[in-house]
């Protein structure tokens, strides 16, 4: 699923990247900069999927029109299950849906106090970090999250990449991990469907989530309206891809591929994994049509 090669206009099949983040949540580029970077990377279809917010949609839409890129508007919802975090991508939801909007606001509000507690635990163990350093990494109106802790550690010279922070201190299995409010994943699927959107589990079988996300839970999510699994992702090796393929085949789910791009500080590169055009068509067909794929 990895994409390489020529200019966009010379290709017969579009390059589709359905999972990226801007500075509205925990990316390092504004929505406009994200779209420009995608155009430079040869992406034809881009999804903006910030954590628990749709605040970047309008700016991304304007930039996508200017750059001639097709835009899929989405979100990434953090869900909680068995003391682990499961992430759900919701494509083409109605941004005016009251129930989903309330749920996302509740999740965002709980993040700030959670980060304060994590930083206090880390500092008590001698990790050089203050909460004011973390706040300095959160852009205006952005949703604070663990990547902002990583960015503060990069800024003060403790680490070089976000990946280092998550391996050592910020993962779900870390002694410094502190939970925050997040919906049950089945409930999140129901919320996305009720808002006219299309739910796909993000990177379902990464190391810190593989124990929590068993086949029975995925089947319950499918019964609630789940449409797909993000199989092709940097955090999935051949074994995880094969598991996703087998499960999707059994449950009748589509398979997506994405970069999970965040900008600087994370090694993920735009279009390093992509989604097949026929899968995007299936996602469009599964939506209510209230929010459409925005084509130039």
From TrEMBL:
Gene3D superfamilies (UniProt xref): 1.10.150.650, Metal-dependent hydrolases
Pfam families in the cross-refs: PHP
CDD domains membership: PHP_HisPPase_AMP (cd07438)
Residue ranges constituting the Polymerase/histidinol phosphatase N-terminal domain according to the UniProt record: 16-81
PANTHER family given in the database record: EXONUCLEASE (PTHR42924), POLYMERASE_HISTIDINOL PHOSPHATASE N-TERMINAL DOMAIN-CONTAINING PROTEIN (PTHR42924:SF3)
Record's protein name: Metal-dependent phosphoesterase
Taxonomic lineage: Bacteria, Bacillati, Actinomycetota, Actinomycetes, Micrococcales
